[in-house]
Amino acid sequence: MAVITRTLIICLLPILLFGQSPLTLDEAVKRALEQYPSVRLSREQVTEASAGIQMARTAYLPKVDFLAQINRATRNNIYGMLLPQSVIAPISGPPNPTNSPTNVWGTATGFLVNWEPFDFGLRKAGVDAADAARRRAERAAERTRFEVAVTTADAFLTILAAEQTGASARAGVERAKVFHEVVSALVKAELRPGVEEARSGAEMALAETANIQAEQAAAVARAALGQLLGVPAAQIALHAGRLLEMPFEGATPAGPSELHPLLREQTASIEESAARLKILDRSFYPKFSLQGATYARGTGANPDFTTGGAASGLGPNIYNWGVGFSLNIPLMDYAGLRARKQAEVSRGRTEQARLDLLRQELTGQLEKSKAMLDGARRIAAHIPAQLQAAKAAEAQATARYKAGLGNLVEVAEAQRLLTQTEIDGSLSKLQIWRARFAVAAAQGEMEKLAEEASRR
């Protein structure tokens, strides 16, 4: 009775202190998916990747540049070519026969429109690559959500297992205490040697240690679940739902689903690599540009090498316009593009090999989980007979000891066997559920099983 009362207090304490209703496994998973930072991070990465698509689409728009300039400079000019560079400012007009420190105002303003009417699919390849990056980010977000759901379910089951272990351990402590009182009474009556009282005390301490370890395991599991939910561990109250009942024996899948979040993310990585390769395939094509320009300039220098007034050149007074069509072929980029294509091809093969490895690992994980599930079901079927035998052995050993026909070691071993059998019995159904969740994790589907386990 004391054990039941203590268990109820432990379960109801968070509700009494914080007013929070117990969470089912499905509710815990949903709350973790809403609160855990890694899920929010993956959502923002999807948003960032979506913005990348819009940025890639801007390549279809014409480029328009505007320039406005004013300067005060000398006007000495010479004949001759100057190779392209970014240091010496060019001067237009006839060469000045003499060097003069005279300086004048110069102004300029203009527009340049540059647009590629066709690009052999280069811009579309860029948009497709950005869209592939978005799909990969979405698959990564799905994988993150799946991993958080698996971790949350595992922490939930661990807490329940620790609580069930603790309840059986506390029952073992109560039995050890009762037996210790019997031994103490027999020792005081000088019907048993004093060493047996010390031995029974040691057995009682051992049972209490096992109880403390179970409570420690539950506290650690609560802290792990609290981290996922973003709440203090003391505020967590759980509702077992159907997890302490024998689950329905459904058919197990033959192999991992291709819709598994890990496989979907890896497939998206392969598609992204292929999209980047298309960009490189089209990067060496000629670039055609339709250009249009209009500009106006003003200067305080005259063609006869004289200068105007003090304000001459402050405003543009000569204008021009023009339209044209240009062709640009990056001849020396071929070697670099070829090396980048080879690297991208190798990267695609690497991603394909990683997909094959993931598929094989998930197949192995599924087979292990199926073996665990089969073993857990067989153990659960065997537990009732084992528990009945352990109870009978403990009762007989205790009766023989009280009658002076047995020894303390027999009783201690029978009590430890009974406690362990009770623990195995309390965990047998949970082990089946845990194995089913392991199968679901290998299959890539957690939602339906979480809903089934959470029915009140």
> Largest sheet, described in full?
4 strands, antiparallel
Radius of gyration, in Å, reads 40 Å
Helix-strand topology string: HHHEEHHHEEHHH
Shape: elongated
- Kindly state the number of beta strands: 4
Overall pLDDT level? 83
User: Can you tell me the CATH topology of the domain at 2-35 and 134-286 and 335-453?
Assistant: Outer membrane efflux proteins (OEP)
Beginning-to-end CA distance, first to last residue? 25 Å
| CATH superfamily heading of the domain at 2-35 and 134-286 and 335-453 | Outer membrane efflux proteins (OEP)
Which sequence of strands runs across the widest sheet? 1-2-3-4
CATH class of the domain at 2-35 and 134-286 and 335-453: Mainly Alpha
Weakly predicted, low-confidence segments: 1-19
SSE layout and pairing:
Layout lengths: L1 H17 L6 H11 L1 H21 L5 E12 L28 E13 L6 H67 L5 H36 L31 H22 L4 E13 L18 E11 L5 H69 L5 H36 L3 H7 L3
Antiparallel strand pairs: 1-2, 2-3, 3-4
Helix pairs in contact: 2-4, 3-4, 4-5, 4-6, 4-8, 6-7, 7-8
Describe this structure in words.
- It is a single chain.
- This protein is of the alpha+beta class.
- The chain is 63% helix and 11% strand.
- It is built from 9 helices and 4 strands, in the order H-H-H-E-E-H-H-H-E-E-H-H-H.
- It has helices at 2-18, 25-35, 37-57, 122-188, 194-229, 261-282, 334-402, 408-443, 447-453; strands spanning 63-74, 103-115, 287-299, 318-328.
- Strands 1-2-3-4 form a 4-stranded antiparallel sheet, with no helix packed on it.
- The longest helix has 69 residues, at 334-402.
- The relative contact order is 0.14.
